[in-house]
Specification:
Elements lengths: L3 H28 L5 H29 L7 H19 L3 H29 L2 H23 L1 H4 L7 H22 L20 H18 L13 H23 L1 H11 L2 H8 L3 H32 L9 H20 L3 H21 L1 H4 L11 H16 L3 H11 L4 H8 L3 H15 L4 H13 L2
């Protein structure tokens, strides 16, 4: 079961998603006054998606340069910008002005969700992370659905809805401030006795980005919303309920097994090959889109956890935890554009999807073993728990006694002899004696070599 902190953070992220995601829909409503259906689709699902991806990228760079980017005042400022620019876009009355302010809204929506996802990665255990991400987006999807039902289903196009958006923005800020004050020591504080690995951005990371990008190209070709007018835009909101079902299911699947979750995400894309042929009329089209959104929950959670898990293994990669989401948004933009371009020729659409599916599958399975080297029960443990297990094995294999194991923990954490002596309430000479015996037992010549030896032992365990 998820612990209180995990549930709290997931619900907080869900509240943020409710008002930012539904605000996005309200702004989209205004575009139907000025543009045709296809143009609205291209603006909201392509242009705005790219801007959201850029918002994630901006936050990634900001986080990489300064850990202060996780200061709580960052999302407060971002919330204010999102609300004000969304309101300006909704009330503008001019098409160019509406798109202009909507652009800022989309960019900072990506930035604030990057903050929320990074905090989840930092504070939620490996074995609960899939469920936490699923809960965030499920709460957001269902919340958007409930808001849309107000005022006979017309609420998202009415001015009063912004009072609700403002209240939710204030609520999320207040809850976030409460969490920040209660857990101000949680972010980027190393409590383990293993220095962060610094392997850098590698080939496997590039493969992850490519696979996620292609997953969402495929998800959106032929599966983008066939909006034929503002009154039918409610189908977009109603489909969010089905999306929530897929998200929750995907969260549980991934927390049981990352391998199975990845395979399910890939196989779910196969529905996209069938959906164009099934959309023969308005009724079947809505049904197919609803089912597609259940399946879309699987790759949606996959994109969330794939870099989060990697960042837990290598803390130097924490700034990159949302690369998967940014890649998915870019894929969504391209997939939607291709879907709009090809939807009039269904045969070509299916052929393009089939070719891309085969290419994506080839890359996915070629690197599957490298991305998921094992699927043991230990993988469901938190990173700290796995390091503890590795430490205990290391102590046993090297034959260290209890006192030496205590000293070893401090050595691996970079403590000096004086600091170790003070912590264990022993003489410094006693610590030197233990250090000498530890180095001899592990066949290491100095502390740096000892740390490297344990790191290699941990990574290969």
């Amino acid at each position: 079961m998820m612990k209180h902190k995990s549930v709290f953070l997931a619900l907080l992220g869900g509240i943020i998603y409710i008002w930012t995601g539904t605000l996005y829909i309200s702004v989209a409503y205004t575009f139907f006054k000025y543009y045709d259906d296809i143009t609205v689709c291209l603006i909201t699902d392509c242009y705005f998606a790219i801007l959201q991806a850029l918002g994630y990228a901006f936050s990634i760079v900001f986080l990489k340069k300064s850990k202060n980017s996780l200061s709580f005042w960052v999302p407060i400022v971002e919330s204010l910008i999102i609300f004000c620019t969304g309101l300006a876009a909704f009330m503008s009355g001019q098409p160019i002005s509406s798109v202009f302010w909507g652009s800022f809204m989309s960019f900072f929506t990506g930035a604030i969700m990057c903050y929320a996802i990074t905090e989840i990665t930092l504070n939620v255990k490996f074995s609960n992370r899939g469920k936490a991400f699923g809960l965030i987006y499920a709460v957001g999807s269902v919340g958007s659905l409930l808001l849309s039902l107000l005022d006979g289903g017309n609420a998202l196009g009415e001015n009063f809805i912004f009072v609700i958006y403002g209240a939710l923005a204030v609520l999320s800020s207040a809850l976030g401030l409460y969490f920040y004050k209660k857990n101000d020591d949680s972010s980027f504080k190393e409590e383990e006795y293993l220095d962060p690995v610094k392997s850098g951005f590698n080939k496997n990371d590039a493969v992850r980005i490519f696979v996620i990008f292609m997953f969402f190209v495929l998800s959106n070709i032929g599966l983008h919303f066939k909006i034929s007018g503002g009154s039918e835009f409610e189908s977009v909101v109603l489909s969010r309920a089905f999306y929530a079902v897929g998200l929750i299911a995907a969260g549980f699947i991934n927390d049981r097994s990352r391998k199975v979750g990845a395979l399910c995400a890939f196989l779910a894309l196969g529905f996209g090959l069938l959906s164009p042929a099934l959309q023969v009329n308005t009724g079947t089209s809505v049904a197919v889109q609803a089912i597609a959104y259940v399946f879309l929950g699987l790759p949606a959670i996959y994109r969330m956890i794939i870099f989060s898990d990697e960042a837990e293994k290598d803390h130097s990669k924490f700034p990159f935890v949302t690369l998967g989401v940014a890649a998915a948004l870019a894929g969504q933009a391209l997939g939607t554009f291709m879907g709009v371009w090809l939807e009039k020729d269904m045969m070509v659409l299916v052929c393009v999807m089939l070719i891309l599916y085969i290419i994506t599958g080839g890359v996915f399975f070629a690197f599957f073993s490298a991305l998921y080297p094992n699927d043991k029960k230990e993988d469901m443990l938190s990173e700290i728990d796995r390091k503890e297990i590795a430490f205990e094995k290391y102590v046993k294999e090297t034959g260290l006694n209890v006192k030496q194991a205590q000293v070893l923990k401090y050595l691996l954490n970079g403590a000096s002899n004086g600091e170790i002596a003070e912590s264990l309430f022993v003489a410094e000479s006693t610590v030197k004696y233990h250090v000498k015996n530890i180095l001899q037992a592990t066949s290491c010549h100095n502390r740096n070599e000892l740390i490297e030896d344990f790191r290699n032992h941990y990574l290969n365990s």
